Amino acid sequence: MQNKLLFALRHGERADRAFTHRPCPLNFDPCLTEKGLLQAEQSSQRILSFIPPNKSVHLVSSPFLRCIETASFIAKKLNIPIHIEEGFAEFLFTWDFDFNPLKKLHIRAQGIPALEQELGVRIIDNIHLTGSVYPETYNMGNNRVKNNWQVYFPRINEDVVICVSHLFVVGSLTEIWLDRRYSISEDGYCKLTIGSFDGQKYEVKQVCDYSHATQ
């Protein structure tokens, strides 16, 4: 496998945990707040500053709206599609969801064409190599993300891989790249881990930093 540059980005501020003027019809699949949109823009600038010219980029996102909105800033700047992958979805804890939300998310209720028009991006719904099972424990979610990465990553041909997802998913990917346990804290939207893969091993250049994003 060729050398690859890797990014794992947490979404911006979510509208069910902060005030927003934006409409948010599905409380289990909130949009970004105005600050979250700003954080997403700042994160796209930060990520793009690391990518050398003429490098191909694969952008993959959790199917939750806050992640797709965050990823859309990168997609528009690079003119690339957003791949939707349920294997990188939110951990499905019973204290967050009293049902499996994956079939009722905004992207499913509104439909991909309408969401593409709203965000001004192209969206590709993946085959979903590793699906979530509701309900999940932390260990189940962590294993699901790690298993999905092991299957998904070797299939990517692009030079750069950007995964936009959730707090614990970014923590799981960080653990893979660090090759050790990593305890991720709740504070900080748009946490960003930056790594690389030389064909044999990972190297981490930045771990869950969010200093680039207004908090």
TrEMBL record:
SUPFAM superfamilies: Phosphoglycerate mutase-like. InterPro entries: His_Pase_superF_clade-1, His_PPase_superfam, Phosphatase_SH3-domain. Pfam families: His_Phos_1 (PF00300). This is Histidine phosphatase family protein.
